[in-house]
Amino acid sequence: MKINFEGIVGQEQAVEKLKRSLENNQISHAYLFEGEKGLGKKDIALRLAFVLNCTGDDRKPCNKCNSCIKIAGGNHPDIKIIENDGIIRIGEIRKIIGEMQLKPHEGRYKVYIICDADRMNMESQNALLKTLEEPPSYAVLILLTTKGYSLFPTVISRCQVIKLYPENPEVIKHYLIKNKKIDEEQAHMLATFSGGVVGRAVELLDNPDFYYRREKIIEICDKLLTSNLFAVLEQIVFFEEHRLYIEEIFGLMINWYRDLFMYSETRNMDFITNIDRKEEIDFHAAKIDSAKIRDIVFIIEKAKNNLRSNVQFRLNIEVMLLNIREVLSDGNGGRSEI
Ligand SMILES: [Zn+2]
To answer: What's the DSSP call for residue 28?
Structure first.
C-alpha cells in the first residue's frame, strides 16, 4: 500500500515522519504541527485526515472512495476543522471533547484539526489536556501553531511534534514553474522574496501591489544614484503612502543592494534575485563598489531598526535617503545621525 502526500510543497522531513508512522500503523492520537504561516501545516493535516479514512486498497488517499470525495468536498462528518479569529474558548473545546466521545459516523477515525491552537486560553488547554491523556482509540487531534511556546508543555508533551521549516527557495521555484505556469525568472524572484515559504510566494504572485512596490523601489534606488537631491527627497511620499508595508520595502531595498554586491563580487547573474533587471544591476554595479554597497545596506538596516524606536517616520526615511546619497556621491559632508 502506497501512501501519497503529493501536492505538499517540500517539507520532506515532516512528510517522511508521517508516512513512516502511517505505514507502521503507529498512529498518534495527537499531533502538533509547528512552523510559520504559509508552510502548509493545514494542507499536511488534511492530507493526514484523507489517508486515515481512505478505504482505497493500493494507494492512500485514492481520491476516489466515498471518504476521499467527502473530505475533498468539505463535508465528511468525521473531519472537523476548527478555525476562528479570536481566542479559542473552553466552550468550543468542550464541544469537541463531547463530540469525540461518540464513535465515528462513517470513517475509521475522527479527525479534529485545530488551527492556531495557540489561541486556546488556559482553561481551554487544561480541558483539552484531559482528552489528550485518554483519547478514544478512533480520535486524532491535530494542533497547528506558529507559536508552540504559547502552549502548555504538558499539552506539547502529549503530542507527536512535527516541525515545519522554510524550504530551499529552489523547491519553491520549481513548484511555481510547474503549478503556476510562470517563467523561470519570475519564479526565481518570487521564491527568493518568499524566504522559502510557499504560501508567501503564492500570495506575492497574485499581489499586484508587491510588483508595484518592487518597481518603485528599484526606481528609487536608481534615482539615488542618478538624480538630484530634490528628486530623491520627493520619493519620501512613496514611503509614507506605503507605510504599512515598510518592512517589506526595506526588505526590497536590501535585496536590491545585495544583488549589486553579489554581482560585483562574482560577476555572475545566477545569484541575483531581481533577475529580470540584469541591465540595471550591471549599470549600478559598475558605479558602486562593494564597500559602498555594504555601507548602504548598513544604513538601511539602521533605518529598519529605528522603526522600533520613537524616531519620527518621515525623519527616519529622510535621513536614510540622505545618508545613502552621501555614500554614493563620494561627498565629504558626513552622514546625518538621528
Ligand atoms: Zn480514498
So the answer is: -
List the strands of the sheet with 160-163, edge to edge: 79-82, 110-114, 139-145, 30-34, 160-163
Instruction: Please name the residue that has the C-alpha cell 493535516.
Output: 45
Instruction: Specify the pTM.
Output: 0.82
Distance 16 CA to ligand 1 centre (A): 20
For residues 200-237, one letter each, b for 16 or more C-beta atoms within 10 angstroms of the residue's C-beta and e for the rest, the string is bbbebbeeeebeebbebbbebbebbbeeeeeebeebbe
Which chain residues have CB less than 5 Å from ligand 1, an ion? 54, 56, 61-62, 65, 68
pLDDT tens digit sequence for 93-112: 999 999 999 999 988 999 99
Q: How far is the CA of 179 from the centre of ligand 1 (A)?
A: 23
Domains of the chain (ranges; CATH) run 2-163 (3.40.50.300), 207-328 (1.20.272.10)
How confident is the model over 2-50, as pLDDT tens digits? 888 888 899 999 999 999 999 898 999 999 999 999 999 999 999 999 9
pLDDT of amino acid 4: 85
Task: Give me the pLDDT at residue 41, please.
Answer: 96
| Å from CA of 74 to ligand 1 middle | 14
Q: Answer whether 264's CB lies under 8 Å from 290's CB.
A: yes
What's the pLDDT tens digit per position in 253-308?
A: 999 999 999 999 999 988 888 988 999 999 999 999 999 999 999 999 999 999 98
Quote the ligand 1 centre to 98 CA distance (angstroms): 27
Tell me the one-letter amino acid at 305: N
How far is ligand 1, taken at its centre, from the CA of residue 178, in Å?
A: 25
One-letter amino acid of 192: T
Here the contacts of 91-98 (C-beta below 8 Å, separation 24 or greater) are 92/124, 93/120, 93/124, 93/127, 93/128, 94/127, 97/127, 97/128, 97/130, 97/131
Q: Which residues on neighbouring strands pair with residue 331, listed in sequence order? A: none
